[in-house]
Specification:
The chain has about 200 residues and is α/β, with parallel strands linked by helices. It has helices at about 10-30, 80-90, 135-160, 165-170, 180-190; strands at about 60-65, 70, 75, 120-125, 195-200. Helices cover about 40% and strands about 10% of the residues.
Amino acid sequence: MAKRSAPEINAGSMADIAFLLLIFFLVTTTIDKDKGLVRQLPPPLDEEVVPPIIKEKNLFIVLVNANNDLLVENEPMELKDLRQAAIDFLDNGGIPSGQEGYCDFCQGSRSPSSSDNPDKAIISMSSARKTNYTTYIAVQNELGAAYNELRDRESERLYGWKYTEVKAAIDAGTYTGNEVKTKEKLKEVKTLIPFKLSEAEPKSN
């Protein structure tokens, strides 16, 4: 009696189906993106250059301790109040009118015990090694927002548009105006309100 041959399975169509499923999942699956802070590292220090002398009143000390408590100028502060405190410091304009370094666009209290002008003002931030990363980022965001708020104010005063909105449009490639001239204006605003945030090495407590 002749042996009956077993029917063969056509695997060609199954490979096509598997390939289509693979393409479907590649197209529809969302891939998590790494998140981080955009920071430009400073250039190496020249050992022959003597560091400039910084007046104490031109330093705004921000500390986040191991318990995630915020200390500003050695005084406890809530995170929600940090942005305005930084703005008040940067925008103080402590040099009297007529003297060198006078800030004619500053709208602060012009206290002689606070910063001379935005170019002299430096925010120094430090944290403990056990500081929660979320708290650390939140503090940085508030300090960055203080600079952006002042830049928005000055760009509106000078050019009628917000610094952050125009910069975001240029970065995204959606800006429709004269990009070259606008970048020059953005640079002028950055010169008025320079970003001077110093981050110290984390402390043990």
